[in-house]
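We give the entry.
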Amino acid sequence: MNETTGKRTDKYFDRRVWKAVGITVFVLVVLLIVYKIFNAFLLLLAASLIAIFFRALASKIQQWTGWKNGISLTLSIVGTFLLIGLFFWLMGSKVQSQASEMQEKVPEMIANAQNHLNQSEIGRKIVDYVSDTENQKKVLPVLQGFFSSTFGVFGDLYVVIFLALFLTIGASEYVRGMVKLVPRNGQGKAQEVVMHLGENLKKWIKGALFAGLIVFTLTAVGLISLGVGTWLVLAILAGFLNVIPNFGPIIAMIPAVLVGLMHSPTKALLIAGLFILVQTIESNLITPNVQKKLLNTPPALLLFFQVIMGALTGGWGIVLAVPLLVILMTLVKQLYYDKNNGYLESSAIISTKKAE
């Protein structure tokens, strides 16, 4: 009897072990697949953000004019591309000439910066550290990965635009298809979660566009006042990179300071002060009213998430870190926090009634 019981116990234990091994292998395979296709997911996310923008603009047009959804959607897409084309038609030659001028002066700007750094002890240490072969070997692979993926962003833009057009036109069908993948008893909640995701991403897009426009305007006015010839390129760069918290403003400030250093250290300091002032205004007056209320997350967590996304996926990861964090936090709030909070509140009500 004991031998039979022991054999059954051993078989039961073996089955549990093999089941645990199978689940572990399955999870690892899924994680590996997700890691390999994550860049494709980021392209889809970028296209979804553009589609959300088109549909939000179409909704506003329909609200203002009373036109049908199809006409408003067409006007939203065509109007956006016409405005972008008009901007580049009016300012394209100026942007191109300034960009070419900066590109030609890059070696001269770097050499000039090194000369100024060599005039101080701290500067010489910085130059020695950057010039050290061992340090270059450590940093170079990281920079190559980042910049290759960053320039890959421009190569992937046509894919993102076409995906965005398809998602814009057939948004309701794609949403219904996603909801149908969920078991029937959870489809109502899935629909609610998708609606919250769309609303939160719409708020983020609105805030990012508004903040970028303010940063572009203030930077352009400041650079013109300081007499910087390449003000348009630098202001556009500052406006676009403002979408990347923490890193974007620093990246935008570096070429501007190098340009100022070509004239004098005083002008470089004034330009650096301008960028710091603009970012102070943006982060204290604009961002708190849009992204901080939307994310409601400590800055350290956002910075840590950006570093992880940059290390894993390069340029796309850093650019889309904030909207991806918006998605994750919305999912956590809708699927976990609200449910648990509701359970705790109902438990507290029951305990209060019992006490009474």
